[in-house]
Design brief:
By secondary structure, the chain is mostly helical. It has helices at about 10-25, 25-40, 40-70, 75-80, 85-120, 130-140, 145-160, 165-190, 195-205, 215-225, 235-240, 245-275, 285-295, 300-335, 340-360, 365-370, 375-405, 405-415, 425-450. The structure holds tryptophan (TRP).
């Protein structure tokens, strides 16, 4: 059989929306506002922006460079650059992608189930106690969360089997505008509530007294997870970019838009939290316990609630496309699987281990009691991927670019071989990647491993 021509996204807009679809996820909807609130609001935001600029954007550009230059998956790319020994970075990425999916698909399942629950009136007349109970029984039910996790994986698999253009591109092109419209609608409703001024103040109030060393580390870690960095997702998407794409511009636009959506999510959530005297730092509870309670008391509550969780489902789904695409591209290009077989095999692995994560939250007695390094499956998968493998992947990527890639070649690719004037920007980025980014990442990594304390 003749080798099929490798797919690419069809336009600059498609590139932007697919990459943004990867960045925007569950992270924006509850994690960003909640962490921002816990860490001094506006002061934390300033630090987060710095992390995005000094670590996030440079690593994103590095991943785009590796992907588009080689036009191959996250493992094979290093070989094509003549540095096959760095293929382990890509293999680590494949592992991280699976580990993240084990728990991310579980949370996405709760979100999907909440769209359904909202529409069927489960939250009619809900109180703070019943809302917490509904959440508790939703996540500890012996089979319902598994069912929803399977639905999530089925949706992701169907989109991915369609391929890059007809699957990822079409889904993100249709869904990202919907997501944007939904969040604006919910913002308008939230901003007309009596608690709106307090909510806004909570989000933007600059209070440096709450900033500590740990705050800076939290901001750096959030930047990684938010922008989908450190596991080859952006190498893989970069390999589908067009020749004409301005890589640094795309990275900056995605980082900016992702941050904007996080802020819009904060503007949707905090006014309602303060209107109903709730706890702003409730974490996962903020999304699943507080929001139903709040919306149930509003006119059109059930409808708004369903919209809110629909929005979260869209965000989670387009983020998962990029997570699963990493092993899929690897299996089909390095191991000779057909695309369909690669998707099916990957999704089955995720369902098997992912059900351990899901059942470890109480759905199954025996599984809930199993511990790895003192953590249940769900927390272990989360900790190992987010706190160790992603920063490690990012660190190696920055070192790879800063010390093992020819500077001129890096600059040439960033300026599309002289077609766009990114030469000076390229020199500047190369320096940041050589000296600043690895140092910063090394510090958070050593700290999160408990090897140094700042
Ligand atoms: N960025 C997504 C979020 O905020 C999650 C995500 C998608 C991700 N792809 C990734 C995180 C790759 C790390 C690496 O929810």
């Amino acid at each position: 059989m003749e080798a099929k021509k490798r797919e690419t996204f069809s336009s600059g807009l498609a590139v932007f929306l697919a990459t943004l679809g990867s960045a925007i996820g569950l992270g924006n909807i509850w994690r960003f506002p909640y962490i921002t609130g816990m860490n001094g609001g506006g002061a934390f935001l300033l630090i987060y922006f710095l992390c995005i600029i000094l670590v996030g954007i440079p690593i994103m550009i590095s991943e785009f460079y590796i992907g588009r230059k080689t036009r191959t998956n996250a493992v094979g790319a290093f070989g094509k650059l003549g540095r096959g020994e760095f293929g382990f970075i890509g293999l680590m990425g494949v592992l991280s992608s699976l580990l993240i999916m084990f728990f991310y698909s579980s949370v996405a399942g709760w979100v999907y189930s909440y769209v359904f629950k909202s529409l069927t009136g489960t939250f009619q007349g809900v109180t703070s106690q019943t809302s917490a109970k509904i959440f508790e029984s939703a996540i500890t039910h012996p089979w319902q969360p598994l069912f929803w996790q399977a639905v999530v994986l089925l949706v992701v698999a169907l989109v991915l089997i369609l391929g890059v253009k007809k699957g990822i591109e079409k889904a993100t092109k249709t869904l990202m505008p919907v997501l944007f419209i939904l969040i604006i609608m919910i913002d308008i409703r939230a901003l007309t509530l009596s608690g709106a001024p307090k909510g806004i103040d909570f989000l933007i109030n600059v209070d440096f007294s709450k900033v500590t060393g740990a705050t800076i580390l939290t901001a750096l870690g959030l930047a990684f997870f938010k922008l989908s960095l450190g596991m080859g997702a952006m190498i893989t998407y970069g390999s589908y970019f067009t020749r004409e794409n301005n890589l640094p511009a795309t990275a900056a636009q995605v980082a900016l838009s992702d941050t904007l959506v996080s802020l819009l999510a904060g503007l949707a959530i905090f006014p309602v939290v303060f209107t109903f005297n709730m706890e702003p730092s409730a974490g996962p509870g903020l999304l699943f316990i507080t929001i139903p309670l709040v919306f149930s008391k509003l006119p059109f509550g059930n409808f708004l609630l369903a919209l809110f969780f629909l929005l979260a489902s869209i965000a989670a789904t387009t983020a998962m496309l990029s997570l699963v695409e990493v092993p899929v591209a690897y299996l089909s290009e390095e191991k000779g699987f057909s695309r369909k077989k690669a998707v099916v095999v990957t999704v089955i692995i995720i369902m098997l281990f992912g059900s351990l994560a899901t059942l470890s939250l109480g759905g199954n007695q025996a599984i809930s009691q199993l511990k790895i390094f003192g953590k249940g499956f769900f927390d272990f998968f989360d900790y190992l991927s987010s706190n160790i493998l992603l920063p490690l992947g990012g660190l190696f990527t920055a070192i790879f670019i800063g010390y093992f890639i020819n500077k001129e070649d890096f600059i040439k690719e960033l300026s599309n071989h002289g077609l766009i004037g990114n030469e000076r920007l390229g020199v500047f980025l190369y320096r940041i990647l050589r000296y600043i980014t690895p140092a910063l990442v090394l510090i958070i990594l050593l700290n999160s491993l408990g090897l140094i304390k700042i």
